[in-house]
Design goal:
Shape: globular
Number of helices: 13
Structural class: alpha+beta
CATH superfamily of the largest domain: Creatinase/methionine aminopeptidase superfamily
Radius of gyration: 25 Å
Strand content: 15-25%
CATH topology of the largest domain: Creatine Amidinohydrolase
CATH architecture of the largest domain: Alpha-Beta Complex
Bound molecules: glycine, manganese (II) ion
Number of domains: 2
Amino acid sequence: MQSEYRQRRQAVLKAIGQGTAIFCSAPMAVMHNDVDHLFRQDSDFFYLTGFNEPGAVAVLTSSHDEHKFVLFVQPKDKEKETWSGYRTGVEAAKERYGADEVYPIDELDEKLTPYVMKASRLYYHFGRDRAFNDRVISLWQHLLRKMTKKGEGPVAIEDAKLLMQQFRRVKSPAELEKIRQAIAITTEAHNTARDMVRPGLYEYEIQAVIENIFRREGALGPAYPSIVAGGKNACILHYVENNQPLQDGDLLLIDAGCAYDYYNADITRTFPVGDRCSEEQRILYDLVLQAQLAAIEQVQPGLPFNAFHDAATKVITAGLVELGLLKGDVDKLIEEKKHKAFFMHGTGHFLGLDVHDAGILRNLDKTWQPFAPGNVVTVEPGIYISPNYEPEEGQPVIEDRWHGIGIRIEDDLLVTETGHEVLTSGVPKSLDVSTKALAASH
Ligand code: GLY
Ligand code: MN
Ligand code: MN
């Protein structure tokens, strides 16, 4: 793996020419008084270093004669390590992480200058750590003052996060292996949950089973707050309370995925709580499924990133018109965004180190980036008819039987040389697959 991190750094060095890029580890976040959140490394920092500690800075530069990759890390400290865990330290970091030079983080201000003063520009992401942002600005201002006398120095700061998008958008075989492992664990969790769901259980009981499997199988935990939403709760897109009992006759929407070695899965399934569902639930489910299949068709190398969302939107809008839930010309409804009353989110996002992963979707001339082999993307259309739905002017009033139905189906796809691979096909998405329903019919 060290050689892969090295290759990634070399690619970035090539892209920045005589510039210097500065990457910060994630800050420790406070949950509440004196209690920290679980540390989660910054994804760009991790992508380039594999180094998983807070209080670190990585510098990449071609403008220094000897050192191309420099790390600043927390030094070994027996007492501090007792409280907050193991530190690699300066000595070991050099060898283990392949840095040309490693310094203690306390020496950053004095040791950073030689790596930035001859750079043509700086790359830095102004992030959550305000104090560090200020240090970078001060350093730059200092260099600017000297620039016209010295005839060298960084003329601008470019966003390092933007820079990294081009690299992280295409996954390497090693990254894909981790995503596949995250998906394998998530698949088991979803299938186990589906088998145990029955009326009367609480949403959190299902959540507990899912997250138990995540941890038991070696995942870090949920990649995002698990959504286990029975009935109308599914109409709240970020429903995370998960504290209601499941009702016979309702659908259950589960959007849950684990993080495995920092790589994420993101799967949504919707299915009946009991062994029956209403005609309206079935009709809307089929519509979402048709929209999803149409969108999946558009995930191909060379096709622009908007095509799959357009395909899903078209199927859903046309279906809603046919059902009398929307009224008007399909293209015009879409143009006026009327479908957003029922389908209010995008159809998908890249997936990787971040759940909503890096990768430019649209160029500055507004053209869309095409899919490329190695992209991993979610495909997740939905229809949500809130219990409080009120039509906009000119749109039909909806009968009660449609209210409170929320459906999303989400798969994770890999773009291949010739098309795509659905990585999450191990989780069934037929409404009738429930083993309870099958057992009941025998
Ligand atoms: N679960 C987060 C998402 O689907 O984007
Ligand atoms: Mn999801
Ligand atoms: Mn998603």
